[in-house]
Predict the structure.
Amino acid sequence: MRVGVTRELRAGERRVAATPETVQQLASLGLDVIVEKGAGVESGYSDAAYQEAGATIAAKLALGTLDVLVHVRPLSPATAKALKKGAVTIGLASPSTELPTISALASGKVTAFALELIPRISRAQSMDALSSQALVSGYRAVIEAVMRYPRFFPLYMTAAGTIPPAKVLVLGAGVAGLQAIGTAKRLGARVSANDIRAASADEVRSMGGTFINLDLDTAAEGTGGYAKELAEDRAKRQRDLLAPHIAASDVLITTAAIPGRAAPLLVTTDMVKGMRAGSVVIDLAAESGGNVEGVVAGKDTPVPVAGGTVTLVGLQDAPSAIPSDASRLYAKNVANLLALMTAEGTVSPDYSDEVVAGACLTRDGTVVHEPTAQALA
Ligand code: NAD
């Protein structure tokens, strides 16, 4: 069967859905891999490296001939329409926003798998692209902060004087937040964090951070390890209790998210104005509305404070900023899902498997993911 690897079309997207390593993995399953010319160039994977791994290079993918198409960003409606009936797609599909594409996939009887829908169970961890890419984002958030922060992160005791360590506060201690805590710790910062899931306290400590317990007196655990949205009175109380911690930090990194919802507002402009000049705020949730009031995705906004400004950064396309390793992890997630559905060179999804069924978005002309089907109705 023919598996196509597309060159990503979205401006700023530098990742690719297969690497030479995963081409080898797919070839060993008996699949023929066709890589669109230059698909891996921005991630550091040359056409020659793909060829050496066993792929064919095509100037342009003949979409109508493919049995499987793997991708990073959601496909365009035009690409979806060009696929043949029965073809399989695997990639990030943004089920809540990319409705025209999903509708085209369903009406073309394409079987689409959305990596966002992979169930969060132990067996599916090797296919969990949200986690692998959140790890990259959490690391990158700290690097972006370091580049803008006018002081050191580590403690330095020198003959010319002592420099205290930076105080980093991380709000939202999921996969990205924990990685941000670990990265900031490794750079020598003093790190604290808050999350509304009770389980996160031990995870923060295991990464070397101090957990800030706000005593919100509410159970915020949702399903699948995710958080539940706080009611507005609790959300306000959380902001009030966080304000002094934010004022005392030099670098604030926010990563809070609720699946299928806009990002919760954790930090108002007044709270940012409580920070000292030179401080940096990195909002990883900027693309989904932001955790920080006034944040603009893809932009740095100077917030005036006494004696200078605080830099508010709306981080965008964070995994794309480290395209080689982000692709390496992402491509493994894709190949592992494809391997789960392949036997003797044939891709044939077994829907009695909860991972396969859970990740399926469209099948046999129908949108099988209920919330997306409802959004389209
Ligand atoms: P996410 O990206 O949906 O959210 C990021 C974090 O924001 C979460 O920890 C959430 O609790 C937190 N948050 C939401 N509202 C908040 C608020 N008002 N204030 C502070 N924090 C808030 O989540 P994620 O990082 O993808 O995953 C969350 C958890 O899911 C992980 O820490 C892990 O325990 C679990 N998980 C399990 C698996 C698995 O078993 N395969 C895989 C990945 C994650």
